[in-house]
Amino acid sequence: MSVYEDRKSALEEYEFRMGLERGRLAVTLDVLTDALVLVGQHGVYCQSARQPGKPAMDIEIISQCITGAKELVSSVMGELQRKKLETL
């Protein structure tokens, strides 16, 4: 199923409130947050053999990548908002 079908109601809501670009980026942040939660849950069960209590290295790397992606998307949303305010 396409993300456009799967997240249809969220896309419609955010696009209406924030505009097309920022709305889609907001839904993207929601998707990334959901993925981060799932990775975190998996990290509870997939622990490092060398460092008990810590997630396995691949889980940590995935978590860092998703967190970085969220930061980038957030910065783009902020930049779009700043440009919108400049044109007003």
Can you walk me through this structure?
With 88 residues, the chain is mainly α. 82% of the residues lie in helices and 0% in strands. It has one domain. α2 (8-18) packs across α3 and α3 runs antiparallel to α4.
H/E topology pattern: HHHH
Percent helix among the residues? over 70%
Number of strands: 0
What about the largest sheet?
none
Give the termini distance in whole angstroms.
39 Å
Share in β-strands:
under 5%
Q: How many domains make up the 3D coordinates?
A: 1
How would you classify the helix and strand content by structural class? mainly alpha
Mean pLDDT: 94
Radius of gyration: 17 Å
Shape: elongated
Count of DSSP helices?
4
pLDDT < 50 runs, ≥5 residues: none
Keywords:
single chain, 88 residues, mainly alpha, 82% helix
List the helices and strands and how they pair.
Blueprint: H1 3-6, H2 8-18, H3 20-45, H4 57-87
Short description:
The chain is mostly helical and 88 residues long. The chain is 82% helix and 0% strand. The longest helix has 31 residues, at 57-87.
